[in-house]
Amino acid sequence: MLQLIRPMERLGQLYRALKQSFADLEQLLQLLEETPEVGDRPGAVELPPGRGAIAFEHVGFGYGKGRGTLEEIDFAVPPGAKVALVGPTGAGKSTVARLLFRFYDPQAGRIVVDGRDIRDVTQASLRAAIAVVPQDTVLFNDTIGYNIGFGRPGAGQAEIEAAARAAELHDFIAALPDGYATLVGERGLKLSGGEKQRVAIARAVLKNPRIFILDEATSALDSATEKAVQENLARVCRGTTTLVIAHRLSTVVDADIILVLEGGRIVEQGDHATLLRRGGLYATLWRRQAETPGTGEVDEGVETNE
Ligand code: ATP
Fold first, then answer.
1. Residues 6+ apart with CB under 8 A from 32
2. Which pTM does this prediction carry?
3. Is the interface score ipTM higher than 0.90?
4. Considering the chain, what is the average pLDDT of its residues?
5. N or C: which end of the chain has fewer CB within 10 A?
6. CA–CA distance from 224 to each of 170, 230, 254, 294, 296 (Å)?
């Protein structure tokens, strides 16, 4: 019986983890049932080898009939570049990331990864190529080693440790009496927000992805921890194509491409210096943030602390 309960428990935990990590899973599951086209096409191929080049070509998308959420989204990210999505709440930043992960298919245009329309490749191969670092990391009631290894089923202990080292988590784990066998979660060791973020980073590193999607935390971490996590992420992602859903402009200054979204459209696009010179929405958001130090929130300058 216990053997049965454990997997069931895992499933429940996994469901909660997924739900938190990429918004509305319930709606997503509904959508998958209703729209069977979000699945592998007959003859779908493996994503061909590549270094994570991304192109959105005139992409249009709406969640419901007649409601356009994204329109004319057009941008290209060369392999290894960092692209940041900024803009007010509801502008469509997360939706862009969800489309790249192929939670939904666009109604217009196409999304190309390493030269292939992502509708023509198997979902398994697309998703194996992309690692998501979510806003909040949910831990399973299991060992810390299991929680990291979850990033890539079948990973060996040495690989798990290497990922933990990259995420600057290894020394912390090694100092625990039970090391990687330490139980975490509701019934085990409670990890701090920063430690949990590092578990998320280790999971992502273990995947050795072509593309990182970072869903920046809107709050939760104190600023010193936040800075340490950001530095760690920057180091881990360097050289790998990275798409950041940014809520703070301070973390996008070094992005190769900043896409400024408003009302589902890209209203500006360029690097930090170019966008500041332009004196448009980005420059306004930047000024507002500078005037309210400490908040760093992009969302219409409102001091939110969700
Ligand atoms: P935030 O900064 O608040 O996270 P965002 O820029 O990431 O916002 P999205 O989450 O992409 O914005 O949402 C864009 C629009 O699509 C919003 O109007 C939102 O209400 C709507 N939307 C998002 N998810 C769904 C969904 N599953 N079903 C219907 N509408 C949705």
1. 38, 39
2. 0.84
3. yes
4. 85
5. N
6. 20, 10, 19, 12, 14
